[in-house]
């Protein structure tokens, strides 16, 4: 926190900020968030819970980028909000630099708030349309009572320059900027206090293809030059692979596989990871067409997730054991250290496959007879 | 040729001036063929499709010139009633957001069945049976039980299947799909795209697939038209465009996809922003962002040059672009 008062150019801040690299910057243990569902008449009571996040464990090291991928509803955004303590966890703990912040109060959180920042998906909704760009970017400094020497305005101009915007646009309003430029404003706001950790929730998915690359490059520059750790939440596997050194795959509130980038993308073990990778359309026509895994239907409801392994209802390798016993997230034999998989019957560590796996009971049902009891 | 769009110009009259959304677009689709129209937001890809469908908001929109030939008949010369007949039966559209395109207070069966009662004069009972048949066809499990359910009871992928069922109901000869999978998850995207491609083959329909996703295009399209600032900048059979783009914009798009061998490095990014349609730059609209731009690009609008028998590129330096890879 002490270095927040300095006006050193962000670019020149070296990564000496964290000498205690031995302990991870952020430790997450068995983190869970259940949203209650209210119902009943005349007395409203809790009738169930959406188990959005249900026991995730991972670490984020200083200066590292961890990717969080999964389909909508898998709990990746909720996890992001728990890490920034925009939400309070139902169970489990979030430890930031040795301090448990999972149930910390407003006062306790105040000093940490400036070190953990967030970049949101929608650059239209996340900027106040009635505030000028200058006051948007300056507000983190105002809230935290930071007065950089030279004044806040000078610092804002400097930040605008870092993110590749014209410092002269200080007094403009968000509507005068395009989507990509607005996202740059969001980035400037997030780095204004020189945080140690940024949670980026789908930072480029609302942007056009040609602009996505620009913003990814900006985030990468910020990460490298300022030594900021990132939790990069996205559904685009290619961008996550590009940006994150480590990647965690989430499914229905749980992490099913976590590994170093190369290990995960080249030697995935969990069937769901295999399915995700094979579903990505290949833009490179020279690549020999990979065989496809087509998953049945949709993700089950997080209100009553399947017993045992949550992926078993869509998994082609599922057996009885999967329904009764939840697979632990462990290092399976043959995997590199740090490559953890939660599966009883993991796939071979390769992305090549010899035949299509088609898993669509409706399709099978159509071919046999017009039946099919599956309720998606 | 099933559909031929000739030199179409569409503009929008706004308070700030005239926005030229479509500036001379030519494309054609044959029966059983898939044309992918690729472009970023504001490139005019959806506006062109809306003009073809006849659902453009006029005003503020205005088709200032051009022809839209559907089975050799100029749609722009038809009267309202005749046009509506073609729109309902001969061509159909699938939208990006299935939830907002379905009526939330009618069951999906009623919405699909409506097509048959209105256009085919069927009884409600027959129409419902037809609806079940169509839901089966787009592989909605337990169609018979679910025909009475409402849109909110279906997942995103299922809703998009219902949209496809509605589009197919009257067996049109042309389907326009505007970003049909953009709002869906990757595993569901693949299901929906496969379904659409399969049904298209089966019914030998023409398909215009509007998208910004290069990956989706590679899988299903026969040919591709890349749009920028209301013009087609490149047309080509799919395979050739990926191997050797003939326009710097296409090339830039392809290069900005993250690749395995360059992880962690800086991504190639097209500099700058798409142009404001109120003030499209003179000459080639892409020139302020183009790494190859020369003086001629700032003054002369490049014509669509014939690159090969099947390919065209609207670039003064298409030869250099092709060679420079």
UniProtKB/TrEMBL annotation, chain A:
<keyword id="KW-0547">Nucleotide-binding</keyword>
<feature type="compositionally biased region" description="Polar residues">
    <location>
        <begin position="1"/>
        <end position="15"/>
    </location>
</feature>
<feature type="region of interest" description="Disordered">
    <location>
        <begin position="1"/>
        <end position="22"/>
    </location>
</feature>
<dbReference type="GO" id="GO:0016887">
    <property type="term" value="F:ATP hydrolysis activity"/>
</dbReference>
<dbReference type="InterPro" id="IPR027417">
    <property type="entry name" value="P-loop_NTPase"/>
</dbReference>
<dbReference type="InterPro" id="IPR017871">
    <property type="entry name" value="ABC_transporter-like_CS"/>
</dbReference>
<dbReference type="Pfam" id="PF08352">
    <property type="entry name" value="oligo_HPY"/>
</dbReference>
<dbReference type="GO" id="GO:0015833">
    <property type="term" value="P:peptide transport"/>
</dbReference>
<dbReference type="GO" id="GO:0005524">
    <property type="term" value="F:ATP binding"/>
</dbReference>
<dbReference type="Pfam" id="PF00005">
    <property type="entry name" value="ABC_tran"/>
</dbReference>
<protein>
    <submittedName>
        <fullName>Dipeptide ABC transporter ATP-binding protein</fullName>
    </submittedName>
</protein>
<comment type="similarity">
    <text>Belongs to the ABC transporter superfamily.</text>
</comment>
<feature type="domain" description="ABC transporter">
    <location>
        <begin position="26"/>
        <end position="277"/>
    </location>
</feature>
<dbReference type="InterPro" id="IPR003593">
    <property type="entry name" value="AAA+_ATPase"/>
</dbReference>
<dbReference type="InterPro" id="IPR003439">
    <property type="entry name" value="ABC_transporter-like_ATP-bd"/>
</dbReference>
<dbReference type="InterPro" id="IPR050319">
    <property type="entry name" value="ABC_transp_ATP-bind"/>
</dbReference>
<dbReference type="InterPro" id="IPR013563">
    <property type="entry name" value="Oligopep_ABC_C"/>
</dbReference>
<keyword id="KW-0067">ATP-binding</keyword>
<dbReference type="GO" id="GO:0055085">
    <property type="term" value="P:transmembrane transport"/>
</dbReference>
<keyword id="KW-0813">Transport</keyword>
TrEMBL record, chain B:
<protein>
    <submittedName>
        <fullName>ABC transporter ATP-binding protein</fullName>
    </submittedName>
</protein>
<dbReference type="InterPro" id="IPR017871">
    <property type="entry name" value="ABC_transporter-like_CS"/>
</dbReference>
<dbReference type="Pfam" id="PF00005">
    <property type="entry name" value="ABC_tran"/>
</dbReference>
<keyword id="KW-0547">Nucleotide-binding</keyword>
<dbReference type="GO" id="GO:0005524">
    <property type="term" value="F:ATP binding"/>
</dbReference>
<dbReference type="InterPro" id="IPR050388">
    <property type="entry name" value="ABC_Ni/Peptide_Import"/>
</dbReference>
<dbReference type="GO" id="GO:0005886">
    <property type="term" value="C:plasma membrane"/>
</dbReference>
<keyword id="KW-1003">Cell membrane</keyword>
<dbReference type="GO" id="GO:0015833">
    <property type="term" value="P:peptide transport"/>
</dbReference>
<dbReference type="Pfam" id="PF08352">
    <property type="entry name" value="oligo_HPY"/>
</dbReference>
<keyword id="KW-0813">Transport</keyword>
<dbReference type="GO" id="GO:0016887">
    <property type="term" value="F:ATP hydrolysis activity"/>
</dbReference>
<dbReference type="InterPro" id="IPR013563">
    <property type="entry name" value="Oligopep_ABC_C"/>
</dbReference>
<feature type="domain" description="ABC transporter">
    <location>
        <begin position="3"/>
        <end position="254"/>
    </location>
</feature>
<dbReference type="InterPro" id="IPR027417">
    <property type="entry name" value="P-loop_NTPase"/>
</dbReference>
<keyword id="KW-0472">Membrane</keyword>
<dbReference type="InterPro" id="IPR003593">
    <property type="entry name" value="AAA+_ATPase"/>
</dbReference>
<comment type="similarity">
    <text>Belongs to the ABC transporter superfamily.</text>
</comment>
<keyword id="KW-0067">ATP-binding</keyword>
<dbReference type="InterPro" id="IPR003439">
    <property type="entry name" value="ABC_transporter-like_ATP-bd"/>
</dbReference>
């Amino acid at each position: 926190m002490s270095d927040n008062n300095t006006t050193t150019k962000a670019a020149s801040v070296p990564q000496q900020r964290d000498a205690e690299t031995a302990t991870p910057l952020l430790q997450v243990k068995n983190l869970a968030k259940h949203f209650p569902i209210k119902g009943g008449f005349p007395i409203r009571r809790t009738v169930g819970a959406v188990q959005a996040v249900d026991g995730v464990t991972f670490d984020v090291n200083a200066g590292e980028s961890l990717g969080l991928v999964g389909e909508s509803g898998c709990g990746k955004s909720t996890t992001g909000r728990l890490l920034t303590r925009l939400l309070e966890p139902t169970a489990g703990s979030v430890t930031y630099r040795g301090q448990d912040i999972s149930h910390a109060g407003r006062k306790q959180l105040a000093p940490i708030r400036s070190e953990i920042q967030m970049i949101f998906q929608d650059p239209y909704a996340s900027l106040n349309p009635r505030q000028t760009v200058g006051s948007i970017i300056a507000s983190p400094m105002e809230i935290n009572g930071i007065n950089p020497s030279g004044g806040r305005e000078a610092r804002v101009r400097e930040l605008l320059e870092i993110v590749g915007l014209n410092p002269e646009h200080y007094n403009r309003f968000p509507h005068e900027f395009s989507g990509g430029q607005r996202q740059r404003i969001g980035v400037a706001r997030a780095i204004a206090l020189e945080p140690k950790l940024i949670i980026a929730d789908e930072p480029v998915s609302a942007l056009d293809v040609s602009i996505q690359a620009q913003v990814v490059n900006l985030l990468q520059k910020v990460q490298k030059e300022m030594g900021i750790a990132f939790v990069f939440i996205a559904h685009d596997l290619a961008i996550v692979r590009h940006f994150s050194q480590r990647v965690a795959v989430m499914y229905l509130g749980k992490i099913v596989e976590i590994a170093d980038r190369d290990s995960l993308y080249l030697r995935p073990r969990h069937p769901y990871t295999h399915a995700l990778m094979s579903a990505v359309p290949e833009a490179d026509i020279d690549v020999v067409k990979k065989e496809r895994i087509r998953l049945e239907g949709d993700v089950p409801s997080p209100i009553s997730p399947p017993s045992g392994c949550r992926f078993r209802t869509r998994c082609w390798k599922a057996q009885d054991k999967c329904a009764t016993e939840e697979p632990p997230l462990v290092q399976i034999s043959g995997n590199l250290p740090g490559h953890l998989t939660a599966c009883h019957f993991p796939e071979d560590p390769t992305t090549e496959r010899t035949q299509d796996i088609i898993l669509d009971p409706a399709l099978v049902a159509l071919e046999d007879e017009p039946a099919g009891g599956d309720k998606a | 040729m099933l559909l031929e769009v000739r030199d179409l110009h569409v503009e929008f009259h706004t308070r700030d001036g005239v926005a030229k959304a479509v500036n001379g677009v030519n494309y054609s689709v044959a029966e059983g063929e898939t044309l992918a129209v690729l472009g970023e937001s504001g490139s005019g890809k959806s506006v062109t499709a809306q003009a073809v469908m006849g659902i453009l908001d006029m005003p503020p929109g205005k088709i200032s010139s051009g022809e839209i030939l559907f089975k050799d008949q100029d749609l722009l010369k038809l009267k309202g009633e005749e046009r509506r007949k073609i729109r309902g039966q001969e061509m159909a559209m699938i939208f990006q957001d299935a939830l907002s395109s379905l009526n939330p207070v009618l069951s999906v069966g009623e919405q699909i069945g409506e097509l048959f009662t209105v256009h085919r004069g069927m009884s409600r009972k027959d129409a419902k049976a037809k609806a079940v048949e169509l839901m089966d066809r787009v592989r909605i499990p337990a169609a018979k039980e679910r025909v009475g359910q409402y849109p909110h009871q279906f997942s995103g992928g299922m809703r998009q299947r219902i949209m496809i069922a509605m589009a197919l109901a009257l067996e049109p000869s042309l389907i326009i799909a505007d970003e049909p999978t953009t709002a869906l998850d990757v595993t569901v995207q693949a299901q929906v795209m496969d379904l659409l491609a399969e049904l298209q083959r089966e019914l030998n329909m023409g398909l215009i697939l509007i998208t910004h996703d290069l990956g989706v295009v590679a899988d299903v399209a026969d040919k591709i038209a890349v749009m920028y600032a209301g013009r087609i900048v490149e047309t080509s059979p799919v395979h050739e465009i990926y191997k050797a783009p003939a326009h710097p914009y296409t090339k830039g798009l392809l290069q900005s996809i993250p690749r395995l061998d360059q992880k962690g490095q800086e991504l190639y990014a097209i500099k700058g922003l798409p142009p404001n349609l109120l003030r499209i730059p003179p000459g080639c609209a892409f020139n302020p962002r183009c790494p190859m731009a020369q003086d001629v690009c700032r003054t002369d609008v490049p014509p669509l040059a014939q690159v090969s028998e099947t390919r065209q590129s609207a670039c003064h330096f298409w030869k250099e672009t092709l060679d420079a890879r």
